[in-house]
Structure formats: structure tokens, C-alpha cells
Amino acid sequence: MIVHSLLQYGLFIVIVVALVKPVGTYLQRVFEGQHTWLDPVVGPLERALYRAAGVQPSHEMSAREYALSLVCFTFLNAVLLYAILRLQNVLPAGPDQRFLTTPMRPDLALNTAISFSTATSWQAYAGETTLKYAAQVLGLVTQNIVAGASGLAVGIAFIRGFARRESATIGNFWVDLTRAVLRVLLPIALAGSLLLVWQGVPMNFSPYVHAVTLERHTQTIAQGPVAALVFVENLGTNGGGFFGVNGAHPYQNPNGFTNLLEMLAIVVIPAALTHTFGRMVRQRRAGWVLFAVMLSLFVVGLLICDLAERGGNPALRSMGVSGGNMEGKEVRFGIGGSVLTAVVTSNGATGAYNSMHDSYTPIGVLVPLSNMALGEIVFGGLGTGLFSLVIIALVGLFLAGLMVGRIPEYLGKKIGPGEIKLAMIFTLAFPLVILLLTALAVRAPAGLEGLTTNSGAHGFTEILFAFTSAAANNGQSMAGLKSNAPFYNVTTAWAMIVGRFFLMIPALALAGRFAAQRRRPPSAGTVPADGLTFAALTIGAAILIGALCFLPFLTLGPILEYLSLR
């Protein structure tokens, strides 16, 4: 089994590495307006959309205008989705109303609308018992595409900040958004969804099926337009799921091939953006170094989580029960497929898990929790992972500059007081909202009421995990926390808003400041962006910031639970 898991990990990594260059090159050509093979089909549709919306493709925006467009677009999407969710009872298509046992209260609708419009896809409900087919397709599928596309647009705008010289603009949000939808996400989503249908994932609007078990009990089997949602939720690095158990459901994730396909959908575009970055700034080696940093952290997390889950529960070993920890895992995926998914989804801003993290060992759950707490700098979401990693690198370069008494710079752009202030807002807003809301939840009676199955260190971890996932715009949970309550619906919604805008807006502001600079020639104190020193500084800064912000809380949660088991 160990060999099988290592082969699975190796195959996944090899495929990702092989796709980084071609996909990254394609993304560069798309967002620099160069010719691509989709031009004859997509070009006329793209121009028609510009005319209908009154968009001038040649008009470029400042960082402020770009950020304002992003905020307005997200707000309108949230309002539209809220309306769809609240009015879903009058929408056509199934399932039968008697199967929708979870009421769509205003607080749940608000939480869900903010969740999917911010590409978080946090779900405080089970899809098959809450949403009608039309709400799934018109609401969630649409938001999975456009929310992911807006994140990709921001990532490209951030890259332009380093690529341009003495420029007051960083692109046009509406043009980048349209290209991301029509030339990247939509074509891949259509192809991927067809592959899932081929593998047995349902794509229909039929009523739920009733089956009689061997014990003569009646079982209701949910179905619906599953394939339309499943692939795009992964491709858009959103998460969520058609079913409450997400990728553990055989209709959503039937076998090892679909599991691998869905994990590749999460990782490939964010990984390829490092190559896009290198090509657009005309320093390809710098892009490969960023990818190497991501891959190194990914492999370390993967091996630690695998060893923890393969080691099993020491409490069970003391009772003579041997073997790895299979609690909460699907037999068809085993430890290897479950760990791979846990590490990929926690790194990739995607909550589409295929096993119950609430049943992981303390160190096993520490890995996905740490991945999210680090800001998902390993691959991350569409665009968000890249600029998160680069901003962490800027902080590392600034600290190194202080130690040697030189003004730090990256790719010929100076990291001055204004730039480092924005970087620190980006760095501190994320842990601040997580830690404050976690502290509130463990003190407020309404917060503690969510701990229906666990208490102590494990219960604390469940609360910390929930707010970290929400702020990271990830969406996965430990499933032991009853989060469909007004307290958690409101607090996690606030965490999602902070995680989306308090990170993207500083990133865009940084892009604007860097775009306005001229490119400085390297000096004796410049740390090369394509060397081992830069990679070490970036990794060191990420670990240092993460430890300073989260180590006390991690000590009260998974670390304390790990020690208590021994």
C-alpha cells in the first residue's frame, strides 16, 4: 500500500510538472491578447459581449478602478445568488420539495451567497437536502465560474505590476474576466464535465430514485446535474459539492481516475501561473523558482500527512489494533488517495474533500490546517496563490534587506515603505480575523453550541479549522462542527469577506505601485530572484510568519491533542 501511494503521488506530481509550461504559455498568450487556437470560435462572442456591456477593450484601469470593479462585480453576484436561493421554491426542476428538509433561512442564504461569490464555497448545508436543481445550476455553477475567473483576473493584474514600467494602469478587469471565462475556464469545464459523465457521474434533472434494501427499508438516492457542478467547483478552486459528503460520494467521485482528474483540475492552472509570471516579466527562471518553492512545500506536507495517517491512532494500537487510520476514509481511495486530496484541496483553496478530516489524526489534520493558515501559498486559488507567495517573498526580502542595510528589491522593483505597508496589511489581516473570531466562538455560548460531538482540544481545532477555511476562501470543514446556525453563518461570512477583499485589494494596490516604477538594474545587494537564496528566504518567511501568528492556537488544538494521545 505504501508503494501504491508513493506511485500515486509521483504520477500526480509528474503530470503537474509536465503541464506547467504549456498551460502557463497559453495563459500568457490569452491575457496578453495574442493569437490562440480558440480565436475563431470565441473571438466574435467576446466582441459581442463587449458591445453589449459597453466595455472598451482598449481602455485600461488604474489599481483603484480595477479593485472597485472587482468589489462591485462580487457584490452584484452575491445579491443575485441570494435572490435565487431565497426564491428557489418557485424555480422549475426538481427535486421533490419533500426531500428539501433543510430550510433556506435568510442567514443561511446570506452565508451561501457570500460564500460562492467569494470563491469560498463554504457549505453549512447538504446540497441534496437543501437546493433545487435550478439553484444548483443557475446559482452555484455560475458563481463557481465567474468567481474563479475574477480571482484569475486579479492574479494576472498583479503580474502586470511587475511586468510594466512607469505605467499608471494594470489592465481592464472586464476584459480579463471575459477572457478568463471564455478562453480558460468554460472550455476546460465543458471537457472535464464530459469526462466525469463518461465515468458515471450523473448529469440529469430526474427525480430522486427509491430503492429497497435487503433489510426491506426504502432508500432515497439523490441525483441531478452533478457533473455540471463537480468539475467546475474544482477548476475554479471553489470547492463545495452537490452532496453533503462532497467527493466521498460515489456519484460525485466514482473512482481513482475521477479523483486524480479532479485534483489536477485544482492544481494545474495555479501551478502554471508561475510560468505565466516568468514569461510576462521576461524572467522565466524566476517563475520556475516560485514553482519549485510551491512544489517543495507541497511534497513536505504530503509526506507528513501520509506518515501521520499511515501510523494510525496510538490509542487503538495500545488495544492491539494495527494498521493505518482508515476512519472517515473511503475504501476505494485508501489512505493515499485521501491524503493526496486533503493536501491538494487545503493548498488549492478548494473544499472538495473526499474524506472526513474530523477523523484524521492530530498531525494529519495539522497539515491541511497549516496549509490554509499559511495563506494557501502552495498553488492556491486561481491567481491568489501566486500573489500570496510573491507577497510573502517580498516580506522575506525586506527582512533580509534590513539585516544587510540595503533597500530590498524584486525583479528590479524597489520594496519601499509604501510597498511593505501594503504587504503587512495583506499578511496580518488574514490571521487577525481568524484568531479574533475563533476567540469569540470559544467564549460565546452560541459558538460552543456548535460543538455537538467533540470538546476539548479536538473541539477547539474544529472551530479554528472552520474560521481558517472561511478566511482562506477554501470551504472545507472538519464536519464535527454544527455550523448551520445564525452565529456561524454570520461570522464565517465576515471571515470570507475579509479573506477575499482584504487580500485582493492590497495585492492590486501593490501591483499599481510596482507598475508605476521603472525597472532598476541589479546592484551588489540584490538577491537574485532565480536563485536558491531567494527560495530559502521565501520558505523561511512563510514559516516564520505562520508560526508567529498561529503557533499558540495550534498548540491549544492539534498539537495538544497529539500530546494527549501519548
Helix content: 55-70%
What is the subunit arrangement here?
A: single chain
* Structural classification: mainly alpha
How many extended strands?
A: 4
Helices and strands, in N-to-C order?
HHHHHHEEHHHHHHHEEHHHHH
Q: How many DSSP helices?
A: 18
Q: Calculate the terminal CA-CA distance, rounded to whole Å.
A: 26 Å
Question: How would a textbook summarize the main sheet?
Answer: 2 strands, antiparallel
What does this structure look like?
The chain is an all-alpha fold and 566 residues long. The protein has a domain at 29-282. Helix content is 64%, strand content 2%. The chain has 18 helices and four strands. The protein has helices at residues 2-31, 39-53, 63-86, 106-117, 133-163, 173-198, 226-235, 256-280, 284-311, 314-317, 334-347, 362-373, 384-404, 417-443, 445-448, 456-471, 486-516, 532-564, and strands spanning 209-212, 218-221, 409-410, 413-414. The strands form two sheets. The chain has a two-stranded antiparallel ribbon. A two-stranded antiparallel ribbon has the order 3-4. A hairpin with a 2-residue loop joins β3 and β4. α5 (133-163) packs parallel to α7, α7 (226-235) runs parallel beside α8 (256-280) and α11 (334-347) packs parallel to α12. 53% of the residues are buried. The model has no long low-confidence stretch (mean pLDDT 90).
Short description:
It contains 18 helices and four strands. By secondary structure, it is mainly α.
